[in-house]
Amino acid sequence: MEGKEATQASQFLRRALQLAWKGRGAVSPNPLVGAVLVKNGRIIGEGLHRNYGGKHAEAWAIEDALKKGHSIEGADLYCTLEPCCFTGPEKHQPPCTDLILRNRIARVFVCTVDPNPRVRGRGIQILQDAGVEVTVGILASEALALNEGFFTYQIMKRPFVHLKIAQSIDGRIAALEGDSRWITDEKARRMVHRLRATYDAVLVGKNTVQLDDPELTVRLVKGRNPYRVVLDTHLELPLSSKVFRTKDPERTILITTTQSVSLERSSIEKDPLEAKRKALEDLGVRVLSVPPSPTRPSLSVVLHRLGDLGIRSVLVEGGASLFTSFLRENLFDRISFFIAPMVIGKGIEGIGDLGIRRIADHLRFDRMSFHRVGNQIMLDGYRSGFYEELYQMATLPLLANSKPIIANPFPPSSGKTPETSFTNGRNLLPLGLGR
Ligand SMILES: NC(=O)c1ccc[n+]([C@@H]2O[C@H](COP(=O)([O-])OP(=O)(O)OC[C@H]3O[C@@H](n4cnc5c(N)ncnc54)[C@H](OP(=O)(O)O)[C@@H]3O)[C@@H](O)[C@H]2O)c1
Questions:
Q1: pTM assigned to the model
Q2: CB of 142 closer than 6 A to ligand 1?
Q3: How buried is residue 304: exposed, middle or buried, by Cβ count under 10 Å (0-12/13-18/19+)?
Q4: 162 and 126: one domain?
Q5: Do 92 and 158 share a domain, yes or no?
Q6: 239 C-alpha vs ligand 1 centroid, how far in Å?
């Protein structure tokens, strides 16, 4: 597809992406999806997936058009994600492919394939087999950015992991005595609260709770609180910690190792760890035991357990040991440094030993961007190859398809020549980043 038609398709899909973004914080573990119906070059109906388990964007767009008195037959549907095509006991809505065919929609444009193994190209195939023209791949990159958590989980079976590090110019995240308040200014903290509101969970290590006693809630902007996840191998944190005393303690998850809890002694009175666990649970906190690796909770198991709870995206907020563990194990997808205009000298370094001994073995990031946020520079990037990995796996069935239905192939890997951009941070969160 080229020229005017391609430009128009991009405009309508961009509108669908904007609609989808409005559902942030409300639909996970479902994906954010937006849809617009177009007839004679004009939008006749709009819709978005508004809440988990609720009506799909395609159904809302059709309902919107009908309410406004439009006939849908022969219309074009622009949707950010491939329409679903299955029913199941855990699925709340009927297949959108049926709805599209019943309403005699002529053409369908989608940004990407739905990576859910129960769809992955089948929705497109059903529509094509019924004579609907389907175009895939326009604004694919933006659509992936919209649903990083959903795509990561469907393909890698673990949540999307974003490391957020606030540091001085010389790479310190705290002064020598552990004090890190406040390295960044109010504007950067507001940005972090905006980020929190779009993530399913924030995760920190025991020492951060001990030293900073953070609430890990969304306060500086409007938005819902994510789950708060704390890694505390031996259940040592005091019950008075703010993370255990929030208004919604059921959204705090404490991760410990199975070894911490004695299985032989069933009597809670005789076992201080069991007593502590019980006290935490009495506060409403969820305590999860995971196997140690070698002595601390295994991060890959932690992520899988969080995924089982419906968590699709995790913002790791520190401290240094956790940043180091996630980087060492290559269990991260995105990393953001908020670099404040200060030098601390001797202090706590944000990232410890990664086992790298030669420059050639350095960790590299893709899709780097730089933003000015208040007095900070925010440096943002992705694990090398992350986006290409997602896209290729999400479109594998299509590559085998004889019909040339991918409109714009995803931009080639930026691994060798990372894209960089410099912005003032205005458009930072949702779209328009050019990622
Ligand atoms: N500027 C920033 O962005 C920022 C953000 C957060 C914190 N901080 C600062 O960072 C400092 C704390 O950093 P930190 O490195 O001492 O502690 P941390 O990363 O907050 O917590 C580390 C502790 O978590 C526990 N843990 C459990 N499972 C783990 C795993 N898989 N990997 C690593 N740790 C695991 C370990 O204690 P147990 O095994 O005993 O449970 C470990 O000692 C504080 O000064 C805080 O103010 C700065």
A1: 0.90
A2: no
A3: middle
A4: no
A5: no
A6: 18
